Amino acid sequence: MVVKTITPPAAPLRIVLGGDEAGFAYKAAIFQDLEDDPRVSLVTDVGPCSVSDTTAYAHYAVAAARKVAAGEADRAILICGTGLGVAIAANKVPGVRAVTAHDSFSVERAVLSNNAQVLCLGQRVIGVELARRLVREWVGYRFDKRSKSGEKVELCIVAALDPNTSTIRDQVRPFDGGSVAAGSSQLHDYASQLSS
Q: DSSP label at 110?
């Protein structure tokens, strides 16, 4: 007898978009793609609303990340010139995991290995068709907290919520920048602690 397990389709995502004027054109194209995607139930644009809006990217990145952290959105896509500044800003919001990714493998691992809810892209780094393709791929991935990565992501969540959380790495003295020989010894000690 053959038993086939049918996986129900994932619930449609609520996605928020944001960025700055350097990412405005890509944001507009991706907004339209998401509105047409049946895997997406809601698209919210927190800004900017025009290419002439020069509000600093951090305002829009934090606004989008806060919507994710509050449960008002499942994910966010942030676009600036490089994708770096918006990622840094979004990661300042507790509970948010934002990544900059410009290739398919990184997009896949961002979700499947790291449960990143925020994808950041750089309009000055990749072409618009690649950006659109990466977003389509990203929307299709879902994190499985029962995977091998589940415990790792949970540790990140706990550490973010409680800065006093102790891990094995907290017990290891950091490399002090001394001599190469001293550094090698410290790295060996560190590796030994990690493997025990």
A: H
Which residues are bridge partners to 114 per DSSP?
A: none
The phi and psi torsions of 161 (rounded to 5 degrees) equal -80, -30
The residue from 49, 80, 120, 156 that is catalytic is 80
Short-list 164, 154, 123, CA closest to 30: 123
What residue ranges do the domains of the chain occupy?
13-140, 145-173
* CATH architecture observed for domain 13-140: 3-Layer(aba) Sandwich (3.40)
* Burial (CB count <10 Å: 0-12, 13-18, 19+), residue 46: buried
Question: Is 80 known to be catalytic?
Answer: yes
| Measured CA distances, 21 to 25, 47, 115, 156, 195 (Å) | 8, 9, 28, 32, 47
Q: Please state the pTM of the whole predicted model.
A: 0.78
pLDDT tens, N- to C-terminus, the chain (196 residues): 666 555 567 899 999 999 999 999 999 999 999 999 999 999 999 999 999 999 999 999 999 999 999 999 999 999 999 999 999 999 999 999 999 999 999 999 999 988 999 999 999 999 999 999 999 999 999 997 777 776 776 777 677 777 776 665 555 455 455 544 444 455 455 455 555 5
Query: Rounded CA gap, 180 and 84, in Å?
Result: 32
